[in-house]
Amino acid sequence: MIKVSIIIPIYNTEKYLRRCLDSAINQTLKEIEIICINDGSTDNSLSILKEYANKDNRIVVLDIANGGVANARNLGIKKAHGRYIGFIDSDDWVDTGYFENLYNQSEGYDLVRGIRVVDNKHAKNQYGCLVPSIIRKVFFVEKRLFFPNKKVGEDSTLKRWIYKATNKILEVKDNGQYYHYERRAGSLSNYQLGEKIE
Predict the structure, then answer these.
(1) Among 43, 84, 145, 173, whose Cα sits 20 to 30 Å from the Cα of 165?
(2) Given this model, what pLDDT does residue 192 score?
């Protein structure tokens, strides 16, 4: 049984992609699939994805025309076979026990929210961020949930929809297993102390 499907949308992030993929394949939770959606990258991202898929059969690579991060994540959700669905953005990474920590606490919950760190500081509840979470696949299907196709705020919008649809939500306690957010210029969700970085 696949416990968690990890969805990774990729667009021109060759500089960070190996770190992201290494963090996914080295998870202590082994019953995972890693669905990588190459969203029309024009750099070497697709070549890196194929290289990793050749050495780890849990990696599935989908190569599509550029349609934006929401479209890529939604495709990953449709293709997922896991009991829960998790996300990593391709310029971010997670600690090796991150998904096992979330999954081990997931019984009875539709949404389990992890802890995100930015510059080694907690940022779990800032910006309405949903990505550092796992969500029950059946819940997605039953409620017909999806990421709205918008340039900014698709993550926080889906979070609001989920919070309206269920109260079976757990925010995990800190045990040192984090989602690490890469703060970089050009990212749509690039913030420092609540301010967008140019």
Answers:
(1) 173
(2) 38
Between the two ends of the chain, the Cα-to-Cα distance in Å is: 43
Task: For residue 129, give the nearest of 100, 93, 160, 108 by alpha carbon.
Answer: 160
The tally of domains found in the chain comes to 1
Q: What is the pLDDT of residue 42?
A: 98
Q: What is the span of the domain harbouring residue 64?
A: 4-196
Pick from 86-90, 142-146, 152-156: least confident = 152-156
Question: pTM value?
Answer: 0.90
